[in-house]
Amino acid sequence: MISVIVPIYNKDKYIKRCIDSIKKQSFNDFECILVDDGSTDNSANIVLKSIQNDSRFKYIYQKNMGVSSARNTGIKASIGEWICFIDADDFIELDYLEDFMRELNKHNCDVIFSTNENIKENIVIIQELISNFNSWYKYEIFNPPWGKIYKKALIKTYFHHDLSIGEDLLFNINYLLDNQDKKIAFMTSNKYKYSNIEDSLSNTVSKKIITQSIQLIYLISKLSQIQTSEILTIQSNSLSNKILSFYEITKSFDWFLSNPNKEQFKSILSNCSLRLKIMLILWFKQRYTFLKIYFIFLKYLKGY
């Protein structure tokens, strides 16, 4: 059985489409766990009406604790051998689950990552992937939890509950690190339909997001068992962009972290890009005049 986990937070405009796409799956041996993370809109009513009289669907309500907590709740409540995640504002094509099961039976593997690109190595031992992770990371399939199917018994590290950004990347990396002797298969597919919603968390810049981005870089830098230089470069540039964007909005440094963790700060400086390193040093030393000039320079170079 496949356990499909859908975290929900204020998605009343999209959740019915998501549920309908799951209902119509050609593969029927699944359960769908819908975890409502304290929605304040009409999501609950739409969900309960949509799943009425369908025993394959289970609705769970919890107070708002973030998407990581919602996914962890779904994992713990699941009874399937396999786990897959779908976001509430996305949907899947008719044979999405069937394709996964066909590939699982074909390769006898322990996890499948789907990709829009053709990957020559259909199946590899996870240790081989980890040993050359920088080159694998170019395929851009390690960040989201969707487009994948995991063996539940092998999930040893859950989603980081303090993060609402990058938590999926850490989950995927930890799954690989925890199961290095297992096999991973790659499936070419475009049957997961991702919706780039403008007001989604990933498109929002705030003090919280900047703080969590700093924490994410720190946590990635501590993963000594896997190559992380490519990830850290990308995450560093992403954080630089967020800081620049937030400054453009606020035109102030009131959001400066007054008491940054020194160990965390030192680790980040040792692993981040030069662009971010300069920014953080000026930020940490509160050299705001020079930081403004640096922002103008980056904007002139169109470096964000």
Care to give the gist of this entry?
By secondary structure, the chain is of the alpha/beta class.
Please give a structural write-up:
The protein has helices at residues 15-23, 43-50, 67-77, 96-107, 126-131, 133-136, 167-178, 207-221, 229-250, 262-271, 274-284, 288-300; strands spanning 2-8, 30-37, 57-62, 82-85, 91-92, 111-115, 123-125, 148-151, 183-188, 192-193. With 304 residues, it is of the alpha/beta class. It is 44% helix and 15% strand.
Can you lay out the helices and strands and say which pair or pack?
Elements: E1 2-8, H1 15-23, E2 30-37, H2 43-50, E3 57-62, H3 67-77, E4 82-85, E5 91-92, H4 96-107, E6 111-115, E7 123-125, H5 126-131, H6 133-136, E8 148-151, H7 167-178, E9 183-188, E10 192-193, H8 207-221, H9 229-250, H10 262-271, H11 274-284, H12 288-300
Parallel strand pairs: 1-2, 1-4, 2-3, 6-9
Antiparallel strand pairs: 4-8, 5-10, 6-8, 7-9
Descriptive tags:
Spore Coat Polysaccharide Biosynthesis Protein SpsA, Chain A, two-stranded antiparallel ribbon, 15% strand
Percent of residues in beta strands: 15-25%
Task: Count the domains.
Answer: 2
Might you state the CATH topology name of the largest domain? Answer: Spore Coat Polysaccharide Biosynthesis Protein SpsA, Chain A
- The average pLDDT value, as a whole number, equals 90
Low-confidence stretches: none
The total of helices stands at 12
Distance between the termini: 45 Å
- Helix proportion of residues, in percent? 40-55%
Oligomer: single chain
Find the CATH superfamily of the largest domain.
Spore Coat Polysaccharide Biosynthesis Protein SpsA, Chain A
- Strand sequence of the main sheet, in spatial order? 3-2-1-4-8-6-9-7
Main beta sheet: strand number and arrangement? Answer: 8 strands, mixed
Protein name: Glycosyltransferase 2-like domain-containing protein
Organism: Massilimicrobiota timonensis
InterPro entries: Glyco_trans_2-like, Nucleotide-diphossugar_trans
Pfam families: Glycos_transf_2
